[in-house]
Amino acid sequence: MSGTEKTARDAHHAQEPVGAPAPAGEGLHARLLVERGSFRLDVALTAAPGDVVALLGPNGAGKTTALRALAGLVPLTDGHLRLDGAELHRTSPESRPVGVVFQDYLLFPHLTALDNVAFGPRCHGATKAQARAEAAKWLDRMGLADHAGSKPRKLSGGQAQRVALARALATHPRLLLLDEPLAALDARTRLDVRAQLRHHLAEFEAVAVLVTHDPLDAMVLADHLVVIEDGRIVQQGSPAHIARHPRTDYIAHLVGLNLYRGEAQGHTVRVDGGSGITTGITTTEDLAGPVFVAFPPSAVTLHRDRPTCSSARNLWRCEVAGMETHGDQIRADLTGGLPLAADLTTVAAAELGLYPGAAVWATVKATQTHAYPA
Ligand SMILES: Nc1ncnc2c1ncn2[C@@H]1O[C@H](COP(=O)(O)OP(=O)(O)OP(=O)(O)O)[C@@H](O)[C@H]1O
């Protein structure tokens, strides 16, 4: 898929939060219903060829279960799984046109990189010579031709990840599944490998589904995010749309926003400020009915004394509940008039003499808030 097509689709997704409709018969059409003890997964996924879908969610949300159900490693309790018009859930896992890259790559330690990659085509019926020729081609594409004879223990984390990806792609899958593809890498390697993986996924012509905890991986690698909490989809759409319009606390926290749900009347949104006390947030949007209001912690200004000449329309009396370093900033968690997170520099925190329990006034300009229908 070309960059232009992806950009055009991003723009489309930004306006269309329920994205990724796949043309009938093509791509992935799945409704995954899986019961595992008391846990129940129920998610519907559709993706067109060329789409990269990221399943994002907290621990235990069901992401891996969904991926394993797509791979055929966990049976569906109910639902369906169609890929390019074929019913996959009636096909054994090994004969599905599905490639899987596991979190720890699962490379065979006694085989060379070439034979690890050749293993994929071999399992799909290629002769040894055909499989090795195919493997050599893929290693070359991954920039690993010089490492064809290396055993996995001689490979760096990033190289091992590419061998695992080459092994999955060498079978020409119509569905590529990646389970936390960057989780095993250190922060520095991760940056490079993320960029390479993005490149390979952009060239991949079938459907790719990846599971990640990391919002940055999801935002960089995927065209379409599916956020799963407690076995259900709570939100889906383009990364840009979700970052700007979070609909749950988990997503708001991921993208670093304060998020409130309330009732709009013109430029005022009435929200629960905690302990059942209602407070108003002034916004620039003129809305009516149930809405979300979001603003970043950097939009909050803190004062020890009630400000008398602030132009900010929003003012709350709060108390510092906790403080922690956040990058090169201090993030203060506040309770009181409105529970919120505020970012400030270390110098500002020292000048304000902040400490847990300190009373502060928090101001937020209406122009820094963003309200949207719930
Ligand atoms: N083999 C199993 N038998 C029964 N329940 C299971 C099994 N594996 C996972 N579960 C349960 O299924 C639920 C979803 O787990 P899953 O691993 O799919 O979540 P996840 O979103 O991938 O979490 P994580 O990010 O921690 O890997 C959890 O409640 C888990 O306890």
A few lines on this structure:
This is Molybdate transport system ATP-binding protein. Keywords: ATP-binding, Cell membrane, Ion transport, Iron, Iron transport, Membrane, Molybdenum, Nucleotide-binding, Transport. This protein is an alpha+beta fold and 374 residues long.
Structural commentary:
The chain has 374 residues and is of the alpha+beta class. The protein has 2 domains: 3-250, 3-Layer(aba) Sandwich (Rossmann fold); 256-373, OB fold (Dihydrolipoamide Acetyltransferase, E2P), CATH 2.40.50. 28% of the residues lie in helices and 35% in strands. The chain is built from 10 helices and 18 strands. It has helices at 3-15, 63-71, 113-123, 128-141, 157-169, 187-203, 215-221, 239-244, 249-254, 346-352, and strands spanning 28-36, 39-47, 52-56, 78-83, 86-87, 98-101, 175-179, 207-212, 224-229, 232-237, 258-272, 278-295, 301-303, 314-326, 329-336, 340-344, 359-364, 370-373. The strands form 4 sheets. It has a 6-stranded mixed β-sheet with strand order 6-7-8-3-9-10, sandwiched between helices. Strands 13-17-14-15-16 form a 5-stranded antiparallel β-sheet. It has a 4-stranded antiparallel β-sheet with strand order 2-1-4-5, covered by helices on one side. A hairpin with a 5-residue loop joins strand 11 and strand 12. Helix 3 (113-123) crosses helix 4, helix 3 (113-123) runs parallel beside helix 5 and helix 5 (157-169) packs parallel to helix 6. The longest helix has 17 residues, at 187-203. The relative contact order is 0.12. Bound molecules: adenosine-5'-triphosphate (ATP). It comes from Streptomyces achromogenes. Residues 23-255 form the ABC transporter domain.
